[in-house]
Amino acid sequence: AQSVTQLDSHVSVSEGTPVLLRCNYSSSYSPSLFWYVQHPNKGLQLLLKYTSAATLVKGINGFEAEFKKSETSFHLTKPSAHMSDAAEYFCVVNRAGSYQLTFGKGTKLSVIP
Amino acid sequence: GAGVSQTPSNKVTEKGKYVELRCDPISGHTALYWYRQSLGQGPEFLIYFQGTGAADDSGLPNDRFFAVRPEGSVSTLKIQRTERGDSAVYLCASSLTTGGAKNIQYFGAGTRLSVL
Q1: B112: Cβ–Cβ under 8 A, 6 or more apart, which residues?
Q2: What is the pLDDT of residues B13-45, one digit of tens each?
Q3: B1–A contact, CB cutoff 8 A
Q4: What pLDDT was estimated at residue B11?
């Protein structure tokens, strides 16, 4: 079985300050891990993915995430928040060889001007 | 089109009615998935198609839900005798391949179903 826990349902940051969205996962097998972003009335967009290559993964729009197996974590970070980053973010796990994505409950990011 | 297209974007129906939700995947993608996203939750898997066949329908909540993909492209999710608890956003995704690192699923904007 696999599961994802997003530790914060809502994160609020000021524009220009760092962003940290926390995610812990549980998987019986070597997982693939993803972060997706969902803007209102738009489809889920892939930010980045971890697939057992480099543990530090760089994604689009300046986001990156670090896979830490010992901590079973895959936190998403960005050095400086922009207003356009305000959205809902989902951490997702996919067991190796599987097609089912298991989503966390999401973290809503608010960016204050 | 360039992305996954879902129609309608919004659907309001009355309890007990039948509804159909359509998904048009990215051209050339053989795998197609349906997910359901309830308010305040992440999407949950419903069903997966490889080509025309439903390879895994284990996520469908009950026999009122059914999905087809007769020609291996467009898919329709069908809900009979709708209940208020069916209200959610229904998401469709497609991918070029399945499994692990290459399983990049591309999502549509979803259909928001409201059952009154």
Answers
A1: B9, B10, B11, B88, B89
A2: 999 999 999 999 999 899 999 999 999 899 999
A3: no
A4: 97
- Residue A30 CA neighbour count, 13 Å, CB half: 9
B contacts of A41 (beta carbons < 8 Å): 9, 109
Report pLDDT for A98: 73
> Phi/psi of residue B21, each to 5°?
-120, 135
Gap between the Cα atoms of A95 and A59, Å rounded: 21
> To which H or E segment does residue A68 belong?
strand A64-68
CA–CA distances in Å: residue B96 to residues A11, A20, A73: 34, 31, 28
Structure tokens at A29: 């097998």
